[in-house]
Amino acid sequence: MLDLAYKAPEPKVIAGAKEDWELVIGMEVHAQVASNAKLFSGASTTFGAEPNSYVAFVDAAMPGMLPVINEFCVEQAVRTGLALKAQINLFSAFDRKNYFYPDLPQGYQISQLYHPIVGEGEILVDMAPGIGRRVRIERIHLEQDAGKSIHDMDPNMSFVDLNRTGVALMEIVSRPDIRGPEEAAAYVVKLRQILRYLGTCDGNMQNGNLRADVNVSVCRPGAYEKFIETGDFGYLGTRCEIKNMNSMRFIQQAIEYEARRQIAIIEDGGTVVQETRLYDPDKGETRSMRSKEEAHDYRYFPDPDLLPLELEQAWVDDIAASLPELPDEKKARFVLNYGMTEYDAGVLTAEAENAAFFEEVATGRDGKQAANWVINELFGRLNKQGLTVAESPVSAAQLGGVLDLMAKGDISGKIAKDLFEILWSEGGDPAEIVEARGMKQVTDTGAIEAAVDEIIAANPAQVEKAKANPKLAGWFVGQVLKATGGKANPALVNELVAKKLGN
Ligand code: ADP
Ligand code: MG
Q1: Is the CB of 233 under 6 A from ligand 1?
Q2: Which domains, from first to last, does the chain contain?
Q3: Residue pair 158/51 in contact by the 8 Å Cβ criterion
Q4: 407 FRET partner, CA 20 to 30 A, in 64, 173, 341, 490?
Q5: Contact at 8 Å (CB) between 140 and 116?
Q6: Does 174 contact ligand 1 (Cβ within 6 A)?
Q7: Euclidean distance between CA atoms 55 and 41, whole angstroms
Q8: H helices within 339-412, ranges in order?
Q9: Does pLDDT of 369 surpass 50?
Q10: Does 466 score more than 50 pLDDT?
Q11: Does pLDDT of 111 surpass 80?
C-alpha cells in the first residue's frame, strides 16, 4: 500500500484574545450498532415506530428478567476496533452505571467501565491533500442506550418512549489529540466514513444514530507538547464537555464559542469550572447543564447478571480477515492505480458505494477520464438533485458506454455531454442512441474539407485578417464546428483550417 506521507496541521490559535491560546479537544462518539435486535434483548431497533412498541420485558426492567448478550453486536464492536487498528481485548466485562431517570427503568445503564472490549487505536483525520492528524483512540466500549422522554406533547405531562431503551451503542473515546473546530468536524466525518464502510453503524446523525460529546479546553502554546511528552493532564486546561452534538456545523460553532468563553474567563482572572454544557444553535452559545459528575458518582460495579465476555483469538482473526478495504487504503490505491490526485481519490472514496461505481466505470478504461466524468458530470448532477449513487438514473455501464464511444472516436467530448443528458432523462443504450440520432462524429476528411471551404469562401475579409494573424484561425474552427452541429472531429478541423489558410 502506498503510504501517503501526512504532515500534521498547525493547531488552531484563537484570534482576538489578549494572548495566544491553543485548543485541545477530545471526543466521545456514541455510534448506534447497526443491528436488528437490541444489545441484551430480542426487541427490534426499528426507528420511528409507534412509541413503546418494541420493548422486551428486560428492556422495561420487569422483575426477574435477565439480559442475554447479542453476539452480533459484540462482533460489530470488534470489527470497528480492528478497523481502527485497535487492540481487541479478549476479556471484557459489563458494569452497571447507576443513576435515576424516568427513561431508564432499570435505574442503571449497562456499560463497560473497567474492562472495555476495545483498547488503543487510531484514526487518520484528513484535513487537506497531504495534511492530516493522527488522533489516538483510547477505547471503545459497548453500552445500552436509554429511552426518550417527550416533553412537548402535553402541557401538563411528560411521556416516556422505551423503543430506544437497550439499543446497542459503541462509545468511541478519543485522546485529546484534536486541535481545532475544523479538525473536530473532520474527525467525525472520518469516523462516520469508516463505520459506514464497515456497516457497523449507519451514521445517520439526524436520527441520532451517531452523536458526539465534545470535550474542549484551552492552553498556552507549548503546553500540549509538554502533555504529550509526559502524559500529564496537568499541563492541559480544565475541560468542559458539550453533550449530544449531531451536526458537523454545530460541532464547529460550539467549539469556537466554548474556546472564546473559556479564554475570556481566564484572561479576566477567573478559572474554568469543569462541567457538562449544552449547545443552543439558535443563540450560538453553550450553557451549563450540570456540574461534571465523576465515575464514583455512578457507583459503578460489575453487573452480576452478566458473565464476562471472553473472545477466542480465532474468532477475532476471522473477523479481521473479513474486513473490507478501508477508506485510507482505497484512497491510496486509487491515487496509485488510476493516477488521480489525492483530492479526487478522496471524493471518490467518501462512500464505499461511490468508489464501487467509479471502479465499475474505470475498469478497462482510462482511469483519469473516468474519474473526471464520475466526479464532474455524474456526482455534480446527483448532488444538484439530492440523489445518491444508488439512485442515479445513469448506470455505471451506461457511463462506461459513453467513455467507450469517445475512446473509439465516435463522439467528441461535447457530444458526449449531450449523450449524457439524454441518458439521464430518457435512459437507453449509448451506442444505439448515437447511431439512431446521427450523433456520430464526422471524421470523413472530405465532408469536413467541404465545410471548411464553404466558410472560407463566404468570409473573404476574415480570411485576410487570419492570414496576417494566425490566432484568428480559431474563429474558422468555431464556424465549422457550428455548421456541422458539433459533430466534426475538432482535431481534424483545426488541421484543415490551418492548411487552407496557409498558416
Ligand atoms: P469522562 O468519561 O469522565 O468524560 P474521560 O477521562 O474518559 O472522562 O475523558 C473524556 C474525554 O475527554 C476524552 O475524549 C478525553 O480525551 C477528553 N479530555 C480529557 N482531558 C481533556 C482536556 N484537558 N481537554 C480536552 N479534552 C480532554
Ligand atoms: Mg464523558
Answers
A1: yes
A2: 27-215+290-320 (no CATH), 323-436 (no CATH), 445-501 (1.10.10.410)
A3: no
A4: 341
A5: yes
A6: yes
A7: 9
A8: 342-348, 352-362, 367-372, 380-385, 396-408
A9: yes
A10: yes
A11: yes
Q: Among 153-157, 197-201, 445-449, name the most confident range.
A: 197-201
| Range in 1-15, 164-178, 289-303, 422-436 the model is least confident about | 1-15
Cell of 292: 461534571
Q: How far is the CA of 176 from the centre of ligand 1 (A)?
A: 7
Compute the distance from residue 242 Cα to the ligand 2 centre, in Å.
9
Give the helix ranges, DSSP H, for 28-124. 71-83
* Whether 493 contacts 448, CB under 8 Å: yes
Percent of the chain residues past pLDDT 70, beyond the cut: 99
CB 37 within 8 A of CB 176: no
Q: Say yes or no: CB of residue 239 within 6 Å of ligand 1.
A: yes
| Cα–chain center distance at 143 | 24
Mutate to test the pocket of ligand 1, among 113, 236, 239 (most ligand atoms within 8 A of CB): 239
Give the CA distances from residue 128 to residues 6, 9, 94, 132, 264, in Å, rounded to whole numbers and listed in that order.
Answer: 10, 9, 40, 7, 31
Q: Could you tell me the pLDDT band of residue 4, with boundaries at 50, 70 and 90?
A: low
Q: Which of 300, 264, 289, 353 has its CA nearest to residue 114?
A: 300
* pLDDT reported for residue 462: 87
Residues 113 and 295: beta-carbon distance below 8 Å: yes
**In terms of C-beta density within 10 A (0-12 exposed, 13-18 middle, 19 or more buried), how is residue 365 classed?**
middle
Which secondary structure element, helix H or strand E, spans residue 240, and what is its range? strand 240-245
Q: State the amino acid at position 83 in one-letter form.
A: A
User: Amino acid identity of 458?
Assistant: A
Non-local CB neighbours of 203 within 8 Å, separated by 6+ positions: 31, 192, 193, 195, 196, 209, 210
3-class secondary-structure state, position 95 = strand
CA of 238 to the centre of ligand 1 (A): 10
- Quote the ligand 1 centre to 420 CA distance (angstroms): 51
Ligand 1 touching residue 106 (CB < 6 A): no
From the CB of 351, is ligand 1 less than 6 Å away?
no
Q: CA angle at residue 137 from 134 to 138, to 5 degrees?
A: 140
Q: What is the pLDDT of residue 481?
A: 85
Could you give the C-alpha distances from 99 to 108, 115, 174, 277, in angstroms and in order? 5, 20, 25, 19
How high is the pLDDT of residue 503?
65
Residue 29 has pLDDT above 60, yes or no: yes
C-alpha cell at 328: 485510507
Pairwise CA distance, residues 316 & 429, whole Å: 47
